[in-house]
Amino acid sequence: MRSRLLLVSIVLIVTTIACGLQQSSELPTPIPTVPSPTPPGIPTDVPLTSTPSQTPIPPTATDTPEPTEVQDTATPEPTNTPIPTNTPIPTSTPTVSPTPSTTPTSTTAPDPDNLLSNSGFDSSTSSFPPNWNGQSSISSSTDRVICDDDDNTRNGSCAFRFGFNGENKFIWQAINVNDPTGDVELIVYAKRDDSGDCQARLRGYEDDDDDTDSQQFEILLNILSGNDNGFVRYRGTANITSEIEQLRVFIGCTGSGDGFTYFDDLSVEIDS
Length: 272
What we know:
By secondary structure, the protein is an alpha+beta fold. It is 12% helix and 27% strand. The chain has a domain at 120-271: Jelly Rolls (Sandwich). The longest helix has 25 residues, at 2-26.
């Protein structure tokens, strides 16, 4: 009985082992996994979990970057400066420089204020020599010739001199006028040998009195020294722009030095 049971057990064990071997032989053979080909340009060790960002291509050596625009810093052109209007020309010149016909050898002009500092220059009661008095009044378009003999000599009929040491230091003469218009001219012909200051003046006054406030214009001629070669003609002009009742001619020298100043012709002319 025991041997029969043992035999049955052995048969069952063998059968079980055979069935197990048969089942294991029937299992399918696993297919090996073949990786898909990697696209060109993508590293094989990077998993394709996401699309990598595109890497910018650096410029080649021949590519030149465009220059950065620079803001123009040039100074803007200045606006046009307005042209100043013309300065009006004065209608009268209070002081007129001498215009000699011959250039004197001396280039040093006397101080125009020297004679003004002499209180007796304008207040002198001396008058011109008798042959210089001439007519006492002048009207428009009429020449006032105080003395003119055209001999141009020291001893002529119109010759008059200022010497040194104060001799004949200043003289003046009044000329009455009747509201002339136009230009008035003072003409002096002189020869100067001394070294002092010498002047001839013509002044126009609104009134015929001695009130200096009524003076309207003045012509000033500075007689230059060094004219040993002959007489020089000086002339000055002023424009009459207001009513004038009197003209006054003044001649004066400081009298310094050891020579003389000679005046030959002297005239006042009005050109209306």
